[in-house]
Amino acid sequence: MEYTGYEILWLFFVYSFLGWVLETASAAFRQKQFVNRGLVNAPLCVIYGITAAVMTVFFGELHGVWLFAAGFIISTLIEWIAGHAIERMYHERWWNYSKLKWNLDGYICLPVSVCWGLLIVAAMEWGNPLFVKIYSLIPALPGKILVLVLLAVLIIDIAATLCILSGRSRRMEQWEEVDSWLSGISSRLGRWIYGFTDRRIRRAYPDIVHRKKEEAAVGQRVFAAGCGFYKLFWLLIIGAFLGDIVETLFCRMKMGIWMSRSSLVWGPFSLVWGVAIAAASLLLYKYRDRSDRFLFLAGTFLGGAYEYICSVLSELVFGKVFWDYSKMMFNLGGRINLLYCFFWGIAAVVWMKGLYPVFSRWIEKIPVKIGKILTWILVVFFVVNMAVSSLALIRSNQRSDQIPATHQWQKIMDEHFGDAKLKKIYPNAIEVD
């Protein structure tokens, strides 16, 4: 079943509220008092809403055991990322599963992930149709206004809460710095909001663990030290280039022909691989010294989920899929298959154990000033390249629907990126309804 953007936003708020009810009831039972669980002050646990929205958009076509498996993996990944993000931003841990069996650094654990999977199945199979039917009872215009107002309030709540929480690790005597973030709010009101949020978080998460901020392992004169923006962007470029080369050689060996595997109209870059390499480096950086088995399993599950999402996203945005595994054994909707998921796992081991340390050292040898200048030049190039590639694909979809070129950008795309040229760049692109 397909949903409109407003319906997806509605489901996001419904599940965020239901998640808040569940978390609050659970915390009240354990602590014998009412506490407002969640990052924001409103009665919403956005991690539930985000998970439900992602599952609805990308995995709505799945059912049964496959829906459970997708919900298990995606919800676990979101919880894992959220735990790391909170600790990275605030140097605190808001939940800890260390006392439960089969946990990973206390961020996630098997029993909770199984519960996530079951909740996802219930939400997708029965919750979504019910809540969308309830939304349809609201007149169209008031329904849209309601969703947009809720979204605006949530954005303001999140922005204010994040600004306030970013100063929690500082002493109250340094309030002048917090004041600068709360432009337009008086110091007294700012102190009240700060204190209210601080007390609420501590009541909601009594097991908060404070962690000291890690000191930089290298001096400030080293370019792209650690695993920050500059390092990740260069890894994205390297991964996109290497991925294109690997896939091109693989097609040559498998089918005996040279075939473009690029994601962009300019240059041999496969963004699917580039984003995967950057994301894997970010997510697995902390676990780079773990066993090969751990990295293989993490790469297999993360790679499979990532490739599935990329397939659905390209279909939703461009009306095309760029690979189809329907003829291979153990495939899921032609979007992923077990063999290539294992390849993702092998790639994770090879990358984190072998290639990442080498490329990381090479990147850090770039002079700081030159590195920053080159980075932003490449950022502009890739943004333009991605924009032009997107417009070319959108226009290709329009041409297949017999939509004439009435705007200037459409005429430019027809002139420079006609169907014949796009066929060479994207030879495996398949038109879908």
Jot down its keywords:
two-stranded antiparallel ribbon, 4% strand, mainly alpha, 67% helix, 14 helices
Structure description:
- The protein is mostly helical and 433 residues long.
- The protein has 14 helices and 8 strands.
- The strands form 4 sheets. The protein has a two-stranded antiparallel sheet. Strands 2-3 form a two-stranded antiparallel sheet. A two-stranded antiparallel sheet has the order 5-8.
- A hairpin with a 3-residue loop joins strand 2 and strand 3 (108-109).
- 28% of the residues are buried.
In DSSP terms, counting alpha (H) and pi (I) runs of 4 or more, how many helices?
A: 14
Structural class call reads mainly alpha
| Percent in strands | under 5%
Order of helices and strands: HHHEEEHHHHEHHHEEEHHHHE
Q: Shape from CA axes?
A: globular
What is the domain total for the residues? 2
Strand tally, please?
8
Helix content: 55-70%
- Calculate the mean pLDDT score and round it: 84
Ends: how far apart? 14 Å
Q: Spatial order of the strands in the main sheet?
A: 1-4
Cα gyration radius (Å):
24 Å
Would you identify the regions where 5 or more consecutive residues have pLDDT less than 50? 168-187, 212-219
Q: Biggest sheet, open or closed, and with what strands and sense? A: 2 strands, antiparallel
Secondary structure layout:
Elements: H1 5-31, H2 46-58, H3 64-90, E1 92-93, E2 103-104, E3 108-109, H4 110-136, H5 140-165, H6 175-181, H7 187-204, E4 209-210, H8 229-255, H9 271-284, H10 292-318, E5 320-321, E6 331-332, E7 336-337, H11 338-364, H12 368-400, H13 408-416, H14 419-425, E8 430-431
Antiparallel strand pairs: 1-4, 2-3, 5-8, 6-7
Helix pairs in contact: 1-2, 1-4, 1-5, 2-3, 3-4, 8-9, 9-10, 9-11, 10-11, 12-13
